[in-house]
Amino acid sequence: MFAALGAYVTEADQIAHDLRRPGQPVYEEILRHFGREILSADATIDRKKLADAAFGTLERPSNRVQELNAIVHPAVAQAQGKWMADIAREHPEAIVMVEAALIFEANLQSQFGRILVVTCPLEIRIQRWMSSHQVDEATARKELERRMAAQWPEEKKVSAANYLIDNSGTQAETERQVRGVFRELTASQ
Predict the structure, then answer these.
(1) How many CB atoms lie within 10 A of CB 20?
(2) Does 12-95 match 114-189 in CATH topology?
(3) Residues 18-46: tens digit of each pLDDT
(4) CATH fold label, 114-189
(5) What is the pTM of this model?
(6) pLDDT of 157-175, one tens digit each?
(7) Where are the domains of the chain?
(8) CB-based contacts of 63: which residues, under 8 Å, 6+ apart?
(9) Rounded alpha-carbon distances, angstroms, from residue 2 to 6, 94, 95, 96, 169
(10) For 12-95, which CATH superfamily applies?
């Protein structure tokens, strides 16, 4: 929605995905720590296998998330910093945004002039996860709780944010909030 209004937007997950490709230093470092068991047949990192190695499973609990984050977060921060600097050189008045779930957890908030948190109740997240991943409620709940356990509590993120968007309503309601935040950002330049 912000991109449609003219903001430059990238996703930290996509940056991390690109850095985990074969031949990249992050790829090699992840293999060094987590082993070749996390690879798919085509030698790419299997995200589910890596998540299971880092977060664990019900059968084999693990808590290696910090180890994985120590490999990935610095490289993502460097890549997104370069991306932001490149845009700033070309378009000094641009609104530049990085979509990332772990800004606070990676201690990257100082990289950004403002922080926007998008939120909605857990039950809505579960329903959306079920729909987008075609899984049952128990599976969706377990996965979301696993992911949320590796993040700051939502209340803490909300209190640290400059802007908050409540994404629990309709798309039109969310778009109205996005337009309001975008107006504030462009007015404050």
Answers:
(1) 20
(2) yes
(3) 999 999 999 999 999 999 999 999 999 99
(4) Rossmann fold (3.40.50)
(5) 0.83
(6) 999 999 999 999 999 999 9
(7) 12-95, 114-189
(8) 55, 56
(9) 7, 12, 9, 10, 18
(10) P-loop containing nucleotide triphosphate hydrolases (3.40.50.300)
